[in-house]
Amino acid sequence: MARPRRQHGFSLLEVLVSFSILALSLGVLMQIFSLSSRNAGVSADYAKALTIAESRLAEVGELIALTDAAAGQELDGRFDWRLNSVPIESEYFGPSAVAPYRVTVTVEWGSAGQRRSLSLETVKLERQQ
Questions:
Q1: Residue 71 buriedness (CB in 10 A; 0-12 / 13-18 / 19+)
Q2: Rama region for 61: left / alpha / beta (φ>0; ψ in -120 to 50; rest)
Q3: Beta strand 98-109 with 116-127: parallel, antiparallel or unpaired?
Q4: Which of 4, 6, 49, 129 could form a disulfide with 107 if both were Cys (CB 3.0 to 4.6 A apart)?
């Protein structure tokens, strides 16, 4: 009487199931990596916008008069910025040698469908003459 042969290796069904599990897990990993790289790009854009806004605020009173509004573009037109300054009216200041202004810089970027913006605001003083 002949002994039944033992099978060595995997059946076709086992191989198909393992490839299916592998394909699903690789798909999930690809989505995670693409999401993290997109978030890194958004984070870099926010850092650039913050740098632009801070530099425009630093120019107010030096290169840009406090009484002026200004606008422009940076980095090949990817970032649009607007600067607005408004005098602060308050009874606390009274007659003084300086006049306070609320200065706001807004930086916008992105495509039409996903427009993003960042605003910084500060108070600057202008010496009265």
A1: exposed
A2: left
A3: antiparallel
A4: 49
Both tokens assigned to 22: 């592998």
N-terminal to C-terminal alpha carbon distance within the chain: 118
> Computed from CA positions of residues 54, 58, 61, 63, in that sequence, does the dihedral angle turn out positive or negative?
negative
CB 107 within 8 A of CB 49: yes
pTM: 0.69
The pLDDT score that the predictor gives to residue 89 is 80
Task: Provide mean pLDDT across the span 29-51.
Answer: 88
Q: Please give, one letter per residue, the 3-state secondary structure of the chain.
A: CCCCCCCCCCCHHHHHHHHHHHHHHHHHHHHHHHHHHHHHHHHHHHHHHHHHHHHHHHHECCCECCCCCEEEEECCCCEEEEEEEEECCCCCCCCCCEEEEEEEEEEEECCCCCCEEEEEEEEEEEECC
Q: Is the pLDDT of residue 110 over 70?
A: yes
